[in-house]
């Protein structure tokens, strides 16, 4: 006879089912919302043009720099693209000091960032750095200072910006604990360039980069023999995707300058907010409860069902509800004889299970990955991470079943976005590409670590009309590591390419002029600055 716990668990699992029909209905709605976003502003999928007009082939070559200002860290790297789909990367990471996150002036934060770039150059590119400084001091020869001696740098900036050019974008608002009102409305690339110039560093901020675009570029570069990837997708703290769209499909007005020769543009979908109106997204009582707990109820509704920041909390809410049911015994024993450990289960008061956001999504991975006959691994994890002592086998079974239902629904929802973009690309239906692989790059702890996440995505892809068994076989999902390093470097390269079409002479003479001015100043008084730049550690 089924226990009340088992019966309740089965009923919950059922509520998290997302059928093949649901998947197909959602794909159609996703495509509709994609088109809507290409036509006008203010839609649920923002479909933001990135001014990146092509993806790499793997043949790109050169030495580029990349920096990444995320929520907590600032990462500086140099990337050597070898031109054969491989690369070498050198990187340093520092925590952004808390006081700078709320600095009075934008300058304070950006000066700190420039300092880190300087330190990085001195440490890892000393030769280049010193030669550069020397050249700046000896501009009497016309060749003394050349554009190509300047590192092109991609700037990954993970805050909302209104991008108006490949290296131009104004900050809309700060998130993730940053608050420097002075910077809002300003061009973040210019803010950084100004501070770089004050230190006379041989660096040009060539591109402003979104992390999904970086993922797309990095994956495209390293996928051998491909015509490039069509999508870069993140399933980490949040979820988002960037894909290659035909310029002709982009109906809303596009300000600023961009290269039209490829006929394509990478679009940042901001798909975390897909279907905020809940036309097709599932909405269990726990989804609704979770949404209410967030600072932005009604927004990012897709993300709240898919990404790492939310799945642990969803599971916590379900488990709490289940524990409250009088006839269900979950993490609770009549006496030690009803527990296969011959003990009684106890949950510490300090357990994360009692606190909103107290359960990390990684426990879903532990649950899904435990195939031991008595679920001893999961029970150990429950004990260690949630201070649930002596959980019974039945408890762990129920916990695992619910966690898997939530994880499986997330993966099937992820397949909706991926499947829709694949269909939108037209690649599967193109008779000239009938044998080609369709590459999709993914990144993020969830897709990287959740067992079978990718397999569950494929299972749903096979069920999508227009993809099917045959189509799914041609879709190759691959991890794109170092999106914010390699990807940003590649975008800097694309940007540098676009510069060449621009008046190179103008850039050169501008730089020469600037170098002359700098050298003149240095010669008159500011020796210490130059010496310091060359020799300080
Ligand atoms: P970010 O999105 O900030 O770049 P990550 O890609 O590392 O960072 O994603 C972090 C998110 O992934 C967090 O929400 C965390 O709970 C979740 N996460 C971390 N480890 C795992 C895991 N093993 N399984 C599932 N989710 C995980
Ligand atoms: Mg990330």
From TrEMBL:
<keyword id="KW-0808">Transferase</keyword>
<comment type="pathway">
    <text>Carbohydrate degradation; glycolysis; D-glyceraldehyde 3-phosphate and glycerone phosphate from D-glucose: step 1/4.</text>
</comment>
<keyword id="KW-0324">Glycolysis</keyword>
<keyword id="KW-0418">Kinase</keyword>
<dbReference type="Pfam" id="PF00349">
    <property type="entry name" value="Hexokinase_1"/>
</dbReference>
<comment type="similarity">
    <text>Belongs to the hexokinase family.</text>
</comment>
<dbReference type="InterPro" id="IPR022672">
    <property type="entry name" value="Hexokinase_N"/>
</dbReference>
<dbReference type="InterPro" id="IPR022673">
    <property type="entry name" value="Hexokinase_C"/>
</dbReference>
<dbReference type="Pfam" id="PF03727">
    <property type="entry name" value="Hexokinase_2"/>
</dbReference>
<keyword id="KW-0067">ATP-binding</keyword>
<feature type="domain" description="Hexokinase N-terminal">
    <location>
        <begin position="9"/>
        <end position="221"/>
    </location>
</feature>
<feature type="domain" description="Hexokinase C-terminal">
    <location>
        <begin position="231"/>
        <end position="494"/>
    </location>
</feature>
<keyword id="KW-0547">Nucleotide-binding</keyword>
<protein>
    <recommendedName>
        <fullName>Phosphotransferase</fullName>
        <ecNumber>2.7.1.-</ecNumber>
    </recommendedName>
</protein>
<dbReference type="InterPro" id="IPR019807">
    <property type="entry name" value="Hexokinase_BS"/>
</dbReference>
<dbReference type="InterPro" id="IPR001312">
    <property type="entry name" value="Hexokinase"/>
</dbReference>
<dbReference type="InterPro" id="IPR043129">
    <property type="entry name" value="ATPase_NBD"/>
</dbReference>
